Amino acid sequence: MLGGVYGGKASFTILCGVIIAGCLWELFGILLPDEPGKKFRRIWGIAVAMVPLLPIVENVFYSQPGMIYVLVFLAFTSFIVELFLSSKSPFQNIAYYLLGFFYICFPFVFLNWMVTTDIGGYSPGRVFGLLLLVWSNDTMAYFVGSQFGKHKLFERISPKKTWEGTLGGGICTVLIAWGLSHVIQDFSTAEWLALGAVAAVFGTLGDLVESMLKRSAGVKDSGNLLPGHGGMLDRFDAFVFALPFYWLALQIL
Q1: Cβ pair 205, 138 in contact under 8 A
Q2: With contact defined as beta carbons under 8 Å apart, do 222 and 214 qualify?
Q3: Is 89 in contact with 140 (CB distance < 8 Å)?
Q4: Of 8, 78, 166, 231, which one is least surrounded by beta carbons within 10 A?
Q5: Closest to 44 measured CA to CA, from 12, 79, 70, 19
Q6: Quick check: helix, strand or coil at residue 193?
């Protein structure tokens, strides 16, 4: 992760591509029905979600009309793919392809905007800071919750999460954001504090959303890439979900 972040814009782009592809592979493995052509559908779903991020269409996609053209094209080519694959639930599969784009891929567009400096450069410190905030919230919520947690936060979805752990993780994350404001000065202190609050709130919600998805599909982990920790989607669900809200907080400030 550190090598990808601090190796330059090219390594950062490759790292994002690996994360997106891995998360999408696991997501489609959960969602798509077990029927002939599932492996091809997973590959097609990744292609549908990642095509707009390719440099060849980057400038077109990032404008509002271009975004609409790309999405319409991908949606209609997906209709054709499902026509020839003879699926029992073609429209459901098409909806899953587009879900993969909006849920996993599109948040990285916001990340690209946030880590691009005013002069068009790339700031690895911003990427590291945004990652650190989410990871700190997750880690500290676990430690505080395991020691002091008594009141369940959202027992229907995640029985182990507690209000004590959530609040403890949030407070620690905001404190870490304050520390980052003195080390990585790409953002102001107020912006870092706002980003810390976003990580605490929406990082937790992102984790709950993925837990909701897994419960609905009857699976414990999104994958088995990391023994004891699940898959890539399990590791990056909170970060990906927080990205649009990171961007929104910076726009408000």
Answers
A1: no
A2: yes
A3: no
A4: 8
A5: 79
A6: helix
Among left, alpha and beta (phi > 0; psi -120 to 50; other), residue 228 is left
* Secondary structure tally for the chain: helices H, strands E: 11, 2
Residue of 30, 13, 15 whose CA lies nearest to 233: 30
Q: How far is CA 89 from the centre of its chain?
A: 27
Q: Please identify which residue in the block is written with the tokens 């990585």.
A: 184
Beta strands in 106-164 (DSSP E): 152-154, 158-162
Tell me: do 245 and 131 sit in the same domain. yes
Indicate whether 114 belongs to any domain. Answer: no
Q: What is the pLDDT of residues 110-168, one digit of tens each?
A: 888 888 877 778 889 999 999 999 999 999 988 888 888 788 887 788 878 888 888 99
Q: Which amino acid is at 81?
A: V
159 lies in some domain: yes
153 close to 35: Cβ distance less than 8 angstroms:
no
> What is the tally of structural domains in the chain?
2
* Tokens read off for 10: 């090219």
Q: What is d(CA 122, CA 119) in angstroms, rounded to the nearest whole number?
A: 9
- Whether 117 is in a domain gets the answer no
Nearest partner of 140 among 165, 103, 114, 115, judged by Cα: 165
Query: What does pTM read for this prediction?
Result: 0.86
Tokens matching residue 16? 């994002």
Do 166 and 143 form a contact (C-beta atoms < 8 A)? no
